[in-house]
Each structure stands twice: as C-alpha cells, then as structure tokens.
Specification:
The chain is α+β, with helices and mostly antiparallel strands and about 190 residues long. The chain is built from 5 helices and 7 strands, in the order E-H-E-E-H-H-E-E-E-H-H-E. The protein has a 5-stranded antiparallel β-sheet with strand order 2-3-4-5-6, with helices on both faces. It has a two-stranded parallel ribbon with strand order 1-7.
C-alpha cells in the first residue's frame, strides 16, 4: 500500500526515532509498504518518520541511481552497482574519509535540492528485516543515501546543513511546503 509522505513542518520529522523489537506490529507489511511508497514517489530512500512513525527504520536502493548513469560516471563511485537494503535500529559507529558535496533532495521537502557535504564513508551497526545484527562499512552514493536517511531517524533534515543565509532564502518555499502549497506527484500529508 502506498502511504502518504509527511511534509516539512511536521513534528515527527524532528523526533529522534526509537529502537524497535521483532514484535513491532505488522513490521513486515510496514517494510513492504515503505518500499512501495518509495518507488511510487521516485525516491531512493525512505525513513519511517517520513510516513509518520517515530522509529529507527529506513529503506534505501542506490542501485536505481546507477541504472541511470553512464558507464564512465559509474566508475567514479566505489559502491557501483549500488545496494538495496532495510535498516532497523541503525546506529553510526564511525564516519571516515573526506567530505564531498552532492545535490540532495528529500520527499518530505519537495522541489528543493541543494549541494550537501557528507563524509565519504560510514560504519553502521544495524539489523536487517530478519533482525540479524550487522556492522558494515558503506561508501559512495550508498553512504550518502544512508546518511540522509539516518538523519531522518535522528530528527534531522538535509536543509539543516545549509548556511543560515541559504536557509533564509529558502524560507518562503519551506513555508509553502508546510502549508500544503507545493504540488507533488505523490501522496503527501501536512501535519504539525
């Protein structure tokens, strides 16, 4: 089932998500719905707060980006051809490598894209959908998406990395998003 995506301005987007246990109600269905919602919205990642759930859960599929890159472009990234994963109860253990900028957007903040600098590598402890524990290092575009979605489960948004002047320049657009005055081609809800 395609779920509505929570728009900028909703309190849930600023909450730190709670860890969950394997008996979380209808978890398997929730994950399936998140995949369906992400793909229907043309996203490459989706975090539970974006569907109004303040839990530490996100899905991501960086392979979609690589499908649309030329062969030469793919060689620029260490994580080609990308990955598709579910992350439950994720916690960052290390951030490594030089920071690099990439033009990011967010389904909860539609029609705004900005260059955001993030570390090249993240070491993450997380559980998969079978609640198997993992500690894994991610690089490239996969690390970028993971860090963006991880921010969501920590109550942060990509616009938090912008310089104050840039954020001030976007304030009108952000206000319009929070009031439902922005057109999108996916289901969105506007709550406080």
């Amino acid at each position: 089932m395609i779920l509505p995506i929570v728009a900028y301005g909703a309190a849930v987007l600023r909450k730190v998500g709670a860890d969950i246990t394997p008996d979380y109600p209808r978890l398997e269905q929730l994950i399936a719905d998140m995949w369906e919602t992400m793909y229907a919205s043309n996203g490459v990642g989706l975090a539970a707060p974006q569907i109004n759930k303040d839990i530490r859960l996100f899905v991501m599929d960086s392979a979609q980006i690589f499908e649309h890159l030329e062969e030469e472009e793919k060689k620029q990234y260490s994580d080609a051809p990308g990955i598709k994963k579910v992350f439950i109860n994720a916690h960052i253990k290390e951030l490594n490598g030089h920071e690099w900028a990439y033009n990011e957007g967010c389904l909860s903040i539609p029609n705004i894209r900005e260059d955001i600098s993030r570390p090249a590598e993240v070491v993450l402890e997380y559980m998969d959908e079978q609640f198997q524990q993992h500690k894994e290092t991610f690089t490239g575009l996969s690390a970028r998406i993971i860090l963006h979605e991880y921010d969501h489960i920590d109550g942060k948004l990509f616009i938090d990395y912008l310089k104050p002047l840039k954020k001030k320049m976007l304030q009108g657009k952000l206000t319009d998003i929070s009031k439902g005055k922005t057109k999108v081609d996916y289901k969105m809800i506007f709550i406080k």
